[in-house]
């Protein structure tokens, strides 16, 4: 298990999860969020190859539609 910060809260998860797997473990739809990873926007094409690691800091923003 690893520990990381998500939107300012401490979370734990299994090691070696890539970004889409981690987002799904939080109950989020990866297609509907934007991710800041350790202070930088993480481009979606890098998600499959980016594994969350102990001590990472993530800010996750949900995309909301409406009018």
From TrEMBL:
SUPFAM superfamilies: MoaD/ThiS
InterPro entries with a match to the protein in the record: Beta-grasp_dom_sf (IPR012675), Mopterin_synth/thiamin_S_b (IPR016155), Thi_S (IPR010035), ThiS/MoaD-like (IPR003749)
Protein's name according to its UniProt entry: Sulfur carrier protein ThiS
């Amino acid at each position: 298990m690893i520990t990381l910060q998500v939107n300012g809260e401490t979370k734990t998860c299994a090691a070696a999860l890539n970004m889409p797997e981690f987002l799904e473990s939080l109950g989020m739809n990866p297609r509907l969020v934007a991710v800041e990873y350790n202070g930088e926007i993480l481009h979606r094409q890098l998600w499959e190859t980016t594994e969350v690691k102990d001590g990472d800091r993530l800010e996750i923003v949900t995309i909301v539609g409406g009018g």
